[in-house]
Amino acid sequence: MKTLRLLAAGLLVLAAVGLTAAEQRELAATARARVDLPHAAPSGTLLPSGWVLHPAGRQIATGDMPLSMQLSPDGRFLLVATGGYAPCRVLAINTGDEQLQMSQGIDQAWQGMTFGPGGDALYVSGGGRDLIWKYRYAAHGGELTAEPPLLVAGLKGNNPAFMPNRKDASHEWIAGLAFAPDGKTLLALNNTAGELLALEPASGKLLLTAKCGDHPNAIAIRPHHSEAWVTNQGSGTVSCFNSETLAKEGDVPVGTQPMAILFSADGSRAFVVNSGSNSVSVIDGETRAVTETIRTALTPRAPAGSTPNALALSPDGKKLFVTNGDNNDVVVIDVSAPSASRVLGFIPTGWYPTSVAVSANGRKLFVGCGKGLQSRPSYPRVGGGVGLDIYNRPGESYGPAHDSRIEFDYICSLLGGSISVIDMPGDEQLARYTHQVMSGCPYRDELLTETAEQGIRTVIPSKVGTKSPIEHVLYIIKENRTYDQIFGDIKEGNGDPGLCLFGEKVTPNHHALAREFVLLDNLYCNGEVSEDGHQWCNAALCSDWTEKVYPANYATPSRGDAPGSEGVTVPAGGYLWDACARAGLAYRTYGEFTSFHSDKESAPVATSGSPNLVGHVSLKWELAGRTNHGRDYQKVDAFIEELHAAEAAGAWPNYMVMSLGEDHTVGLTPNRPTPWAAVASNDVGLGRIVDAVSHSRFWASTAIFVIEDDAQAGPDHVDAHRTAGLVISPYIRRHFVDHTLYTTSSFLRTMELALGLPPMSQYDAGATPLVRSFSDHANLKPYVALAARTDLAATNPAAGALARASKRLDFSEYDRCPPEELNRILWAAIKGPRTAYPAPVAGPI
Fold it and tell me: How far apart (Å, rounded) are the C-alpha atoms in residues 28 and 828?
């Protein structure tokens, strides 16, 4: 295994085969500290996103994402509900000695927790289980005794206006919980149907219902008043209700995707955190008007990407603490003077904070971190989570370690949540903390108009809006592979050949393109799985809703995918095609964010869930995708046919996005392509696309970007997020190995600069564009596609228990099939039915 060589000054030495000595010196001189491998160090933990963690305080491992957090009425214990990939738990942590006191396993949890009026009962949202968990709480020892859950009776069923057409969306999801002021009624939110429910707390009997907005998430009771206020995450509003009759008294517009809400002790102000707007809305309790909008971002002009998602007040009510999920910090705000709030500073946290609480004496801050404290390789396996197994069979895998088993960690099991316990900082300590947060953030306001990479001779502009010879961008998104799986056998890169499952014999075009153009061996996906990965691929951001939903969907068994809407799933900055629409650029999609409808009475129609894609969808691609199960090597004919038509017309879209995902494979589904045939088909399809474009009249003004949406389905010795990507253009530095740390967001930033578009989020603005991979002159030599070296027609066996099990899985869309069910089938096929599959377990708690 190779390691990257660093100069004494800490700058990366780039392998630059084919570059002049002057060009090599120029590139080396512009490489900066961000060019590195992800690592953990006392000076800060570099994430694969390029952001650096400096988590403050003492860390308590929870093993999974803390979704809800609340102090006990006496302040002696912190109650935490986890609800990520690992089995869900309710934890009790002693706030004095900071030790875990109690841990109870539950089937499912979601955002919602409250104590009963006497403080001796704890209620926790059961998410998609249509129930609320109930515990008897003993204050003297923080003991939790499970009682029969409240089965929420009388739910009306899923609301089709908010629900996609998903087979697994059979339940309604219960979110925020609170007791009405009289203590006799438990209020709960039906997140799916958009309803406020009044329940009898002993039986769960449904007493009253009221309509909220789209995806209500949190409830707060206004002190000294019979009022319940609800945040509507999808509607961008707060609904105000009479807490006794549930009569709706009005809606207050706030920011985008409001999450949490709390009141000042006297009920005069409500604080609402807006995850899509980098802000907190302050609402006057009497007039119900927004009196302040407090920015939580690190800089004044920062676009979407701070993702504030939870908040807490100090006991004296003078300070507000807000978790910025995507900035990895807590913002400290002085709210002592109404309408004159001011940000005091920032406290660094672990990866993606999700919850916050303040101790009863105001001396400690508790912060739940959804993804833990660092990112790690998936190989070799470290344990503590789900272990997967790949068998490299002779004739199927072509690395030197064929005919051997490779055991690795699944990416979601590596995201171990934690609680940070932070001593309340004084002014000087808060200033030091703020410096750490700023130093770990690659975003700066000046990056909205220009990049930090200056002085490199390249066709990628350093300023937004500068004309580039690249007028056409083709963006190809593939499915789920790591760098080592595809390129581990390329000796010039930092690969492990023993992990190369789909080597050069399976992917000759990928290998030829990496060698002929540029090899990127330090490229990382921002997302973990397809559900968040496609948002990152198209928006350089993922909504807080998706970050919290996908782990449960990918768990084993799946706890269901909470049905979302455009209001909660679309990142606040929109998608790249939205930016093209605003700029008047021509754009088109080939299978990305599209669906297909056809019946006997109407012609086939290609549609999209994204409004700006309507009318920009290739129907030919959609039709080809449903012929012969959509083999990539065949359906690319539709793209090539449209390319030739564009040549004849003399006009081709500026931006094209394509889903080319047969490398996802369909496992052992009977009579369907083997995994190796599927990946080979994907390789041939890619080769044919590049061949056609490079022989077209548009080649001199085109760049092709190829990346996986995520890297979840294989081992990698550097990081579980590292992936295989390609950049292909006449302007690429040929035969070049670029070791720069790039991300999904780097790809988007580079495409934006080429097309003259501003960044959509803090993540693409702060990402390093691929300027070192591009030169300032064109080499118009076209690419000639290579023929398949693997049998594209090879199919899985038609009979057997595993074939029948695979046949039951849903491969109609990528990752509709529960990953762990597929992995169990592969495990049994390799090791036999008598070898037990390793059960998922939480990390150390």
Answer: 49
- 278-326 per-position pLDDT tens digit: 999 999 999 999 999 999 999 999 999 999 999 999 999 999 999 999 9
Burial class, 7, CB count within 10 angstroms (exposed 0-12 / middle 13-18 / buried 19+): exposed
The three-state secondary structure class of 41 is: coil
What residues form DSSP beta bridges with 221?
228
> Phi-psi region for residue 549, left (φ > 0), alpha (ψ -120 to 50) or beta?
alpha
What pTM was computed for the model?
A: 0.90
Return left, alpha or beta for 196; rule: phi > 0 is left, psi -120 to 50 is alpha, else beta: beta
Closest CA to 745 of 724, 764, 761, 758: 764
Number of Cβ within 10 Å of residue 656's Cβ equals: 25
User: Strands of 353-358's sheet, edge to edge?
Assistant: 58-61, 418-423, 364-369, 353-358
Nearest to 66 by CA among 358, 327, 352, 365: 352
Q: 71, 78 in Cβ contact below 8 A?
A: yes
CA 194 – CA 185 distance, rounded (Å) = 19
- Per DSSP, 662 falls in state G
pLDDT score, position 820: 53
| 319-373 pLDDT, tens digit each | 999 999 999 999 999 999 999 999 999 999 999 999 999 999 999 999 999 999 9
Q: What is the pLDDT of residues 595-612, one digit of tens each?
A: 877 655 566 777 787 899
